[in-house]
Every structure is written in structure tokens, then in C-alpha cells.
Amino acid sequence: SSSSSSSSDVSSTDGGGDSSSNSSSRQEEQRSVPVSVEVLQQRTYFTRVACAHVAGLLTAFAANSITHLGQPALLYIVPATLLTVLATAASRSEVGRVWRYTDVATFGVPGKEQQ
């Protein structure tokens, strides 16, 4: 008997909270759409540069294997990633935007300071 009352409590709780959770999830979905679009646009660079990083590292391993001499991995990784950023920016007509990019510090920004 107690198990049937607990299961009815669970079902009534699920039913009661369902409509409010649906409205709150719809509100969250509406708020997250602009952020999702920005993330997808930024992912173009990230994905391509991550692949270029792996390709540069594999090239360093190949050079090490062929020459049997130690190879500085950054000799291959840096050009691969920089050229990939440049090629991606050129394909998207964003070379000027990438060149003028400056990082914004989070310290000193209201709400981001240490509390």
C-alpha cells in the first residue's frame, strides 16, 4: 500500500512540475539561440586549427622518424596553425577582422571582479 502511494506521489509530482519545466525550458531555449549561433561560427576556426595542430604534430613525428634527430614540434605546429587561421579567414573574407583582433581582459569588468 505504501509503495502504491509513493508511486502516485511521484506521478503527481512529475505531472505538476512538467508544465512549469516546459515553460522554463522554452525560455532557456529562446535565450540560448544567439549564443549557439555564435559558438557555431567560432567553431569553424577551432575545428580547422585543431586539425592543423594534429597535422603539424604528426609532421614533427614523421620528421623525427625519418631523420632520427630530435625535432622541435613548434617548428611544424606554429606554421600549420597560423596558415590555417589565415586560410580560414581568407575563405570567410575576415582577414582584416582577424588581424585587428584584440583580447578583452576580464579583470576590471563589473561583475567579473573578485568578490
Structural class: mainly alpha
Largest sheet: none
Instruction: Report the β-strand fraction as a percent range.
Output: under 5%
Structure summary, number of beta strands: 0
Uncertain parts: 1-17
Average of the residue pLDDT scores:
74
Cα(first) to Cα(last) distance is 52 Å
Helix fraction, binned, reads: over 70%
What does this molecule look like?
With 115 residues, this protein is an all-alpha fold. The protein contains 3 helices and no strands. It is elongated and about 55 Å long. Mean pLDDT is 74; it is low at 1-17.
What order do the helices and strands come in, and which of them pair?
Elements: H1 2-67, H2 74-91, H3 95-99
Helix pairs in contact: 1-2
Which characteristics define this entry?
115 residues; 3 helices; 0% strand
